[in-house]
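Task: sequence in, structure out. Protein: RNA polymerase II associated protein 1.
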Amino acid sequence: MLRRPKPTDSEADLLREQELFLNSGASSKVNVVRRPDKRRGEAFSILSRRVLFAADLPDQLPTLTPAPPKKSRFKANSVRFEEEDPEERLDRQDTHISAVLSRIIERDTSSTPVSLPPFTGTAFPKVLRLSEADGPSAASGPWLVSGQGLGGPDSPAETMRIHRENEAKLQAMSESEIREEQKKLLSQLDPRLVEFVRSRKAQSVPPSTTPSKYPEDKRDQEECLPKNVDNESDSSSAAGLHQKPLELPVKPQKEWVHMDKLEPEKLEWTRDLPAPRRKGTKKAMQARFDFAGTLIPPTEDLPTHLGLHHHGEEPELAGYSLQELFLLSRSQVIQQRSLALSTIASVLAKARAGEYTSVLRGNMTSTLLDAGLLFLLRFALDDSVEGVMSAAVHALRALLVSPEDEECMDSTFSWFRGLASFPLLPSSQEEEDEDNEGLEENMKETVKEKEERKTDYDVARLDVVKGLLKMKLLPRLRYILEVVRPAPRVVQDILEVLTRIARHSSSSATQVLDCPRLMETVMSEFLPTSWTMQSLPLPQSVYGLPLASAMKLLRVIATSGRHACARLLNSLGARERLSRLLSVEPSELLLEPAEALRITTEAYRLWAVAAGYGQACNLYIDLYPTLLEVLLSVHRALAPSDPLLPLQLQRVLAQLSFLTQVTHTAGCHQELQAGVVPHEPKVAKHTSLYHQVALVLLPWLLPSSEYLAHELLSTIVFSKEFISEGHSGGPEAIELSELKLYEDTHHHTAPSFQTVGALLREACVQLPSIRGCFLTHLAHLEASVLVSRDAYLGRNPWINSQLLPELTGPTLPSDWPFLPLVSLYERMGVSNGGGLQVEELPQGALQAVTHCLQWLLLLEVWREDALKVVLPVAKLARLSCVFLCSSDLFLERPVQKLSWGLLRLLTRPSRLDSLDLDVPPPGLASFQDLYSALLAQYEAVSFGDRLFGCWVLLPLQRRYSSTLRLAVFGEHVGMLRSLGVTLEQLPVPLERFTSPPEDSLPLLRLYFRSLVTGTLKRCWCPVLYVVALSHLNTFIFSQDAAAQVMQPVHYR
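Result:
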C-alpha cells in the first residue's frame, strides 16, 4: 500500500515513491491543470502530471545564464500605420461565422408554450433539491437522461425514446467495447467528481428502491451496462483506475456535524482494540500503570470505560507508561497534568513499599530521577492551577518522605539515646577533583565554592534534598502556605516535606529556619495560641488550628542543634505553645481526641529535646502541678479495646523521656568511675561471658558511641580479670596439648620455635601495655569520645546537637585487632615505584607490632569467635604486612616467635579448609596482587628466611589457582635458589601440594624446564622440587602418547 510522503523523506525517497506509484497504475489524487491560452485559441484541458525521473537528470548542474528578455505579443500587434485602412485590417483579422457555426438545425418551437416564472414574496426563487426532483418514475425510467431540457409537451416520450436508443446501442456492443468506452469515459472525468457522484447516490437512493440486481456499492459503474454483462468484469475494469474505498469502522451520516470531510486515519481509532499479548510471553515489555499506581500485566484485558486506553504506541494495552505520564504532566489540559502527577505520586509510593521489586528490572525511583523527575515536580509547583500544584506537592512528598521510617523513629524516641538521630544523607560518592590537581593548598577551592559552582543538575544527581534547596523550594512552599492556602491534605504534605528536609542535615534544618516568613507562617497558622472548636470532624481548612505535624517539624529542627532550639523557644514563640498545650488535659484542647493526643505527645517530645540541651527547664516549675497530676494518672488502666490506647502509650513514653532529660539537667554531674571490675563471687563467675560480649559489641558500635568503645577497651577488653583463662592454667593446658601433638606427628620445630603456651603466658603479662598500644592508635577519636561522653553521662548543658554524625560505618572496623599492623604498613608500605616509602622504622614500631601479634595470638586461642567476622583470607592478608612494611621487621626475634605461632594456628586443618584465596581480601582488588608483592619482597630482602618461605609456600597448594604457581616458576623463578624450607619445617601437609595431579600444561612445561636446566634443585628448594617431580611423574606415566606431546624446549 502506498504511503504519504513524510517531511523527513529525502529526494531519493520521493523519486522512489513516485516510481512505485506509476508502476502501481493507481490514479493520481492531484492533477496538474493548465489554463487554456485564449490567445492561441486553446480549450480548457486536463493535462497529465509531468514526471521527472532520476535517470533523466544530468550528472552536472547546468550553468546559470541570464534568461532572454520577454517580448509581448500584443505589443507587436499594436503597431499601426497611419495610411492603413481600418476596414482592410478588420477584414484581414476577422473570420466568417461559418468557421464557428455549421449545420445549424432549428427546432420547431411554434407550438411550445411559453410560461413565465411565478411571482413569489421571497427575494430568491426556491432551490430545487435533488431529493425533490427524484420522483416515483425515476425508479422505472432512465437514470442519466431526464428530459428536463427538452421543454416540449412530449418530453417524457422523447426521453424514453432516447433511453431505448441507448439501451439498444449498449446491447449491440460487445463486452470489450463496453469496457473500452467505460475506461475512456472515466479517464475524461475528474476522479473527485466521480467520488462525489458515488457518495451522493449512496445517500439519496435507499436500497429498497434500487431496481438493479447488483450490489449498491457498484451500481454507479453498472448503470451504463446491459443486464447480461457480468458484474466482475465491470469491477475489474475500474480497479486499475481507482482504489477500493476503505471500510471504515463507522458509516458517517448526513446529520452528523463536521463530518462532511472524512479522515480515515482518525476514524481508525474507533475500531475495536486488538487482542493483548498472549500469556507466557518472555519478551520484556514497557511497564504500564493505572491511576492508582498498580502495575498492569501486559496480558490483562481491561474494559475501555476505565479510561486506561489511549492513542499511544501500544493502543491495545491498558495503562500509562512512565514516558507517557511525563508527557501528560506537561500537557496544556489541566486535568491531564493533575492526573499524570497524581499517578506518578502513586507509583513512587508503591515503589518505596517494594511492590515492583519482583516484577521490574532496576530501581524505579532511580529511573525516575535520572529521567528528570525532580525538575518536573519543581516546575509543576510553579503552576498557577491549584489542582496541578497540589498534585505536585503530593508527588514530592511520595518521593522524599517514608512514612514507615518516620513511624519507627517516633516509636524509638523514648529509647536510650532515642532523642538523637542520624542525618538522612545519601551514600557518599567520591568525586574526582581534577580542577585542584597540582595546585597548592591555599589555591584549591573550598567545599562551599565547589557547591556554588555546580549546576542544579549536578547537585540534584548526588543529593536530592540539596538539589531542591538549590532550586529555591523553600520560598515556593512558603508562598503556597501563606498565599494559596491549600486544602488540609496539601498542608500536611508540605509539613512532612519540610520535616524530611530538616532531617537531612544541620545545614538543611538551618535553611528551613532561615527561610523568610516560612516558620512565622507555620507558627501563626498551624500552631496558634487560641482557636475555636470545629463543628465537623474533618474541617475544610486547617488554618487557625494546631497540627501535630507542625509541632513535629519544630522538634526535628530543634534536634539539629542547641542554637536552633533556642531560636524556636525564644524568637518564634515555641515556649508559649508548649505552655498552652501542656497546661490542660488533651480532652480540654477543643480538638479531635486523636489529634489532641498526637499534638501533646509531640509537645512533650519537643520539650524533652530542649531539656536535653538544658533549655526550657524553667517551664518545669510552672507546669509542675499539671505534670504531677499526669504522673499520678498513669496507673489508670485503659481498656484494651480502646482505639486511642496506642496514642495514650506514646504520650506517656514522651512524658517519661522529658522527665529523664530534666533529671539529667538538674543533677548534671559525672559519677566517679571507680572501675567496673566485678568483685562479687556470683558476678565473677561470668567474667568470660562479659569479655566475649564486649568483643562482639565493639564492631557494632556506630558513630556517636565512641565513649562506649573507649570504656570497653579501657575497662573490660584488655583486663586480666575478664580473661579467666590467663590465670587458671590456660597457657599450661595449651603447652601440653601442643607437646602431645608434636610427639604424635614427629615434627621437628624450627630454630626459633617456642610453644604457644609460653607466648600466651607472656601476652597475659603484657595486657596493660597492649591496651595502651591500641588506645594510642585510636587517639584520633579523642574529640568524638568527649562529645559522646557528654551525651552518655547526661551532661546536657554541654551537648551542642542531638543530630548524630554522618553514618559512614561503625566506629571501629571489624578487623580492629590488626589496626597497629595495618597502620604501620600504610606509613611504611610499598610505594608506587616498588620500594619502601621509609627506610627506617619509626620509634616504637617494633613494640607496637609485637603487642598487636600478642593480642591476635590470644584471640585466636581463647576468643576465636571474636575473629569470625574477619575472613581467613583477610587474616592472611593483614598478617602479610609483617613482611611488607619493612625489610627486616620479620627478622626480629619477638616477631619471629609470634608469627610462627600464628602461622601454626592458621594452618590447622580446619582453618586451611576455610581459607579461600579466590575471594578478594577487603581493601584489595585480588589476592594475586598481594602475592606478587610478597614474591618481590622475598626476592629482595628475605635472605632465605624460613618463616617468610613458609608464608610464600602457603598459597602454592594445589587447590588454589595455578596463576599463583605460574608467578613463582615464571616471573620469580630466581627465588627457587633461596626457598630452602625443608619438608619438616613445612606447616602444611605435603599432600595438599601434590594432590590432585596438575592439569595445567604451561605450568608442567615450567616444571620440566626448571628441572632440566637445574634451576630447581632439591638442596635449594626441597618442597617445590618434590612437588614438581611428583606432578611430572604423574603426567608422564598416566597419560597416553598423544597427551604427552610437549613443545620442544631449547637450552643453552
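The beta strands are 32-34, 45-47.
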